[in-house]
Structures
1.
Amino acid sequence: MKALEYLNKVETILKEVKGSQLQAIQQAAELVAHTIEGSGLLHVFGCGHSQMYAEELFYRAGGLVPVNAILEPALSLRPEAPKSTWFERCPDYGKEILKNEPAQPGDTLIIASTSGRNAVPIDAALQAKDMGLKVIALTSMAFTRSVKSRHASGKLLYELADVVLDNCGVSGDAVIGFEGIPFKAGPTSTVVGCAILQAVIVEAIEKLLARGITPPVWVSSNLDQGDQINSRYIKEYRGRVKCL
């Protein structure tokens, strides 16, 4: 049963993450906590399907409020997905994207790229460093070490990050083989990557509370008090967070 095989693969990878990534999760959480403590923003960026990580952490019930999702339209799958692949490889585009975001020194930027090889995420990392931001990379080390950079510098994303979060995925991302199909199906990067990032967020919240700081957290709008609580956050952060 391929469904069970896939779930077992994901479970195995999550166990690998638990065994190998807790220190990096702690380090990433410390960067996020330091940023929030200093009244800064956590920015989240990815191209194509990796935009889902920005959507996962932004305006999410149970998530931190000071999160800015960088949702560049040209890099989304809408309205024509193949264009996002082309744009992701454009030199200097990542730098221009970040220049137009409400990013300040002391902020933290999460950049998600499973292969870590394309120009836009690498340029975004370079620009972030120039602007005084800390960079957290969410990538697959097995994948990125199996490919060459498409950036003029020859660098891969993980080489530019202050903290690297490895989603422990395989080269090509997919894990389920079928007879008669030359490539595998069943990618794991999204389900595992979202778990890793949510682990970073809850760890950052714990660190802040230990310092006597109560960070703002979104409440489900389907709870009776949700709208009332969230409206205060929207009023406070509108103008600072782009998509609010």
2.
Amino acid sequence: MDDPREAVHAADGPVADVMQTPAATFSQHKKDLEGQWNRGEEADTEDLRMALRTYRSFFNRLLSG
């Protein structure tokens, strides 16, 4: 593209699409855990550990990029 403004605008769409997938996954995971807690259920310790590892891994990838 010859127009830098248009190039940036065109790049925004794919980046936004890529970011929506992990955001939706984390949001659903959070809703599931909160649903368990709101029903008075205990979340499995292993599920919580894996959720935390997933968050940490994703956050570290964002910071290293």
3.
Amino acid sequence: MRDNKKLFDKISKRLDLLAKLPACKEDKKDIYEELSKKGIDRRDFVKWAGMMTATLALPASFAPLTAKAAEVANRLPVIWLHMAECTGCSESLLRTEDPSIDSIIFDVINLEYHETIMAAAGYQAEQNLENAIKKHQGNYILMVEGGIPTIEYYLTIGAHGKTGAQACRDAAENAAAIFAIGTCSSFGGVQAAYPNPTAAEPLSKIITKPVINVPGCPPSEKNIVGNVLYFIMFGALPALDAFNRPKWAYGNRIHDLCERRGHFDAGEFVQHFGDENAQKGFCLYKVGCKGPYTFNNCSKLRFNSHTSWPIQAGHGCIGCSEPNFWDTMSPFEEPLGNKLYHTAFNGFGADKTADTAGMVILSATAIGIAAHALISSVAKNK
């Protein structure tokens, strides 16, 4: 408790200092005014702050600090670069029909450079990026969306033909924090899938500074905004897992928190899409769900204004927040355990990015899960 009090006071002082800084944006948007325009009152905002505090794995008493961090978010400059991607991560956050508090907060944040929503183009856009890097040197957050081709002619930018990789290096040099947004930027994504003709790489492979990975196809807006709020409050990066993902967001497997987990344990499985068991909401493991091998908080946060997520909608998790998931998790409608049986631990299926020991452990886990599914299913039938 005493340590929490010290931390609370430390964060509070940091937020007080940030509050005294002028807003970065010329229009100086106020979070409460923006929320009011969307029909969201202060009580809803307080509830959101409490929920976000819990999501960040902070004590409930820190909720006022989370709210205050959102209030001063317009003091924080953000530079967002687009590489080889579909812009889905940006679209899911900014183009929602029914804006959530998260998306409104991100609209209030000072987006100094974001190609999807900026009016400038051509030379003016290039100049805006250079000016933003100089103006906020050492104080801005860099967010990069998309895999980065390392064969230069696949991604060149502007009149001078700068490569995407070089643009990332230039922007990363003076960034206070760097986030890879989405699986493409975090791990290469579909761009880096076999045969990877552009030699696409994740952001962490083409720069030398620490990168926080926020994978997902797309990631939840809370996982994006939550990291920004964490950095505002602490002035530091969150605790990370082995793949540099924030533990507060990617610390649990989909399988552990899945609403269908009870059916898995009881041996109740969907045998094929559209069957009677599918209508009963049984476990999707036998039709390819990769939830046992995927770390994310989708079941808690959900998508589409937090109303649903793939497993609830009837399709198994495809493992989109894991490294190399296009190669290691496919085919998406078949159990991963079957694939591992057939390949006999030859390096395909479990996780090519892990070392040998890690791959064998995950392979054994997959076979154990497959065996459990088989045994429990037989017992259920008897």
